[in-house]
Design goal:
338 residues; alpha/beta; Rossmann fold; 10-stranded mixed sheet; globular; disordered C terminus; AB_hydrolase_fold; protease; Dienelactn_hydro; Dipeptidyl aminopeptidase/acylaminoacyl-peptidase-like protein; aminopeptidase
Amino acid sequence: MNCARGNAPGLATGLALLWVGLLALAVAPTASVASEPMLGAFGPEGARMREQLWILPSGDANFPMRATVFRPAIDPSGEDKQRPLVVINHGTDETTRLAVSMPVYYYLSRWFVDRGYVVVLPQRRGHGATGGPLAEAIGNCAHPDHYASGNVAADDIEAAVKFMTEQPFVSHDGAIVVGVSTGGWASLALSARNLPQVQAIVNFAGGRGGHAYGQLNAICGRDALLSAARVYATHAQEPTIWFYARNDSYFGPKFAEDLAQTWSSAGGSVEEHILQPYGNDGHAIADDRQGWDIWGPSLDSFLQRVREAAPKSVEMADDHGSRSPVMIETSTITPSVK
């Protein structure tokens, strides 16, 4: 009896290790039995907005990205029709980047899913389950290369956009690219590429190099960041909308306004909203349900105008109407949408 009880955990452990090994083989960056990684859906859909793990290509074929996909409910008729895509791109914390879980941004994702979008949240190279080197961190705080760093991150986003818009349940155009913090900066870098699949860019508190040397409202290479933005904007033709809070400790209102002025003067389209102080740190404006009432009406209006200005061949999601914001918004630059 004691012997049997002693052997059972060993057997269970062996089976668990076998399953772990099979899973690792299935999603390994470079499979030993094939030249290409296994891409696409991995595992069943969950109950929460049809949540599912996906494996996506990145900017480097050796490091496929892990991603979370959320989808609207199947139509009452039983048809799982094509939906426009939203790609939500996460920020970066150097001290925790390898320990972070899969990006979800539940309330931001749900805002779009409720409006009929398929949402994908890729985990870029150098973060969490995707792992690998942090390819998008080029230079150091004293000598950062914000332009090249943004482009490397944009390579990952571009790969995700192209792969997902080829899926049968996703529209081939009309995609919206959304970014938070460094993900916002990467989304602005992507806008310079004018991908035919992408219709607009949404930037929440975007930038790079915040909290320089551990100090609030200090930015590594502030002038270099503005210079890089100028180059991106010179090429960007897509409409963009930006949200920053007055109490953002990474990228405060003065920097946000300077960045928007730089972007606009270089020919980029920008509608910027400086929001009133939000929570303990306004850098988290995209993180919870309250954000729907703060930035939601402006984003609804922006997306409606974008659709009217650049109609696509596929059916777009319907708006749910504007809600009264609970905080005052101040728009610093609001040119007509391109």
